[in-house]
Every structure is written in C-alpha cells, then in structure tokens.
Write a structure and sequence with these properties.
Strand order of the largest sheet: 11-10-9-8-5-4-3-12
Largest sheet: 8 strands, parallel
Order of helices and strands: EEEHEHEEEHEHEHEHEHHHEHH
Shape: globular
C-alpha cells in the first residue's frame, strides 16, 4: 500500500497523485466519472481536486457539475471520511471574485453540491487583486472556525500576494495557507520556479501542481503527423512545435522504455520529485487512462534520470 504524504502544515495526508475533477460532468458523464473515481480509490487514491467553476465553460452547464458528481459518488459509496476533497472559490459565474460575502456564499453552495458538512482543502481559485488579502484571509478563517473548511489554500497567486497573506495570518493568528496550486510541468516551469517556489518553500507550503501533464502532451500521445481526438488537442499539440517540447519527449521516451513505464508516469515522477511538490494533479476521462497516473506512487527516478529531464526541459 502506498504511504500517504503530509500536506504542508495541514493535518491532511494524501496519495501522491491528486485526481483532477475537471472532466467530471464535462468529457466524462456521471457513470464514467464514478468508474474513474472507483478505480482511483481502489488503487489507494484519496485526494480529489475540483472547483465550483467546473464545468461552467460547457454550453448548457452552469458550474458545479463536477462537485455534484463527486458529492453523489461519496454519498453512494458512503466513503466521505476516506476522501480528501479539495475545491475552489472565485470563478463560478454566480460567485465571481473573492469578497468576503462571495467566499461565504460560494462555500455554502459547494458544501451543498458535495453533500458534505466540510471541505477538506479550500482554495482561492484565481486571485482577486481588488480585494485586500486581509479580507480574503479573514473570510477563509471564518470558514475554518465554523468547521466548514479544514485547511485553506491558494491557486494562481503571485509571490507578493502569497507573502502578504501569510504575513497577515501570522500577525493576526488566523488560518494560514497550507497549500499552493501553481501550473507546473516539464514544458512549463517558469510560472512556478523562482520567487513563487522560494516563497512556498520558506513558508513550508505544499505544492499541488495543475496542468501536470501539459494538457496531455506529456502522456506521449501527441506525435508528429498524428491526430488526437481530445478537447485539449490544440493546446497540447503546440508543444510539439517547440525545441523544448521535442527534447523533453525524447528524454521521456528513453527513460520510459528503460524503466518499462508509461511516458505519463515518468513525467509525473519528475514533477513529484521537485522541491515543495507533494502531489501533482492529473485527470482521467476513462478508467483506461488511470493506471499510468497512479503508477507515479511507485516510480522513483534515479538522480541521472531526473537530471536528464531537468536539462531537457530547461
């Protein structure tokens, strides 16, 4: 059984791969989503990542579809106590931004859809610079004090606003961010490495990166002259046109072949080895896509393999 990893300064412990819920209620219907969730749990997984905005971008959807699927699954399986549920506020069409009133209303709606009385990890989805960090942290702290949220986190936040938030929490003795969710992968390192990662490391935050497989590019299914039927094909395919993308793919191919592993597993293993990273996020639309993702829990790359990938992705 894979051992769980402590999640920053929170009291949560998680499987080393977070299952992304963005596809639930979008490219995976409820029965397909249940099958993926069941397979993930059967593999020892306990960390499910969603957001109240998933999947408001789909015609006919209004946001909250993913939370509803996850809530229905936990109710049906009776496994709420075994699942670390992470969701986010700030981007739902009816709850845009991070004012105190918006955070409170968004949390209540998420709790209802998830069919639970508490959210394990609650993120601000995108920063709202029109709201002072003091107001945001105070609103999140209220949710923690009320027992509705166990730990708080931030996604898409600058190093400056992160530090200001941490300083305010410290000064006032309020709930403090335990987790950061940046975009981070082998072909997109710049958004996290540097000042933001340094700030997270100093503060003891856990990083739970999204876009861990670069919209599917790092699964290895995108190749020259090969068409891929995916909602994200155009974005992923762009990496093939870059020198870095081709270098990374070549290194991944070699290491995967030598290890008898999937390309996606190797890409996730590199990410999981990076400073501050506790659990990359990756989503599976079908049960068949899942084994390559959860296999990251068992694959530890050697120093020379890690160095090769780091150099290829520079």
């Amino acid at each position: 059984m894979t051992s769980l990893r402590p999640l920053g300064s929170s009291d949560l412990s998680v499987f080393p791969l977070a299952l992304g819920g963005n596809v639930f209620g979008w490219t995976a219907d409820e029965s397909e989503s249940f099958a993926v969730l069941d397979a993930y749990a059967a593999a020892g997984g306990n960390f499910v990542d969603t957001a109240d905005a998933y999947s408001a971008w789909v015609p006919g959807n209004e946001g909250g579809e993913s939370e509803t699927v996850i809530g229905n699954w936990m109710a049906l399986r009776g496994n709420r106590a075994d699942v670390v549920v992470a969701t986010k506020a700030g981007a739902h069409p009816q709850h845009k931004g991070l004012s105190a009133a918006t955070i409170k209303a968004a949390a209540e709606d998420s709790l209802r859809r998830l069919r639970t009385d508490h959210i394990d990890l609650y993120y601000t989805h995108f920063d709202d610079v029109s709201v002072p960090v003091e107001e945001i942290i105070t609103a999140l702290d209220r949710l923690v004090k009320d027992g509705k949220v166990r730990a708080i986190a931030a996604s898409n936040l600058s190093a400056e606003r992160l530090q200001a938030s941490l300083d305010f929490s410290e000064r006032e003795g309020l709930a403090r961010y335990a987790v950061l969710q940046p975009p981070y992968n082998l072909v997109a390192r710049d958004a996290y490495e540097g000042e933001l990662q340094d700030t997270a490391a100093r503060a003891g935050l856990a990083a739970v990166p999204y876009a861990a497989l670069a919209s599917g590019f790092l699964t290895g299914k995108y190749r020259e002259g090969k068409a891929v039927d995916s909602a994200r094909a155009q974005r992923a395919g762009q990496h093939l046109e870059t020198e870095r993308g081709r270098r990374v793919l070549a290194a991944l191919d070699d290491i995967a072949a030598a290890r008898g592993a999937e390309v996606a597993t190797v890409a996730l293993a590199w990410l999981a080895s990076r400073p501050t990273v506790v659990a990359p996020i990756a989503s599976a639309r079908t049960v068949e896509q899942l084994p390559a993702l959860v296999a990251v829990a068992e694959l530890e790359l050697a120093e020379d393999e890690l160095a090769r990938l780091t150099a290829a992705s520079a």
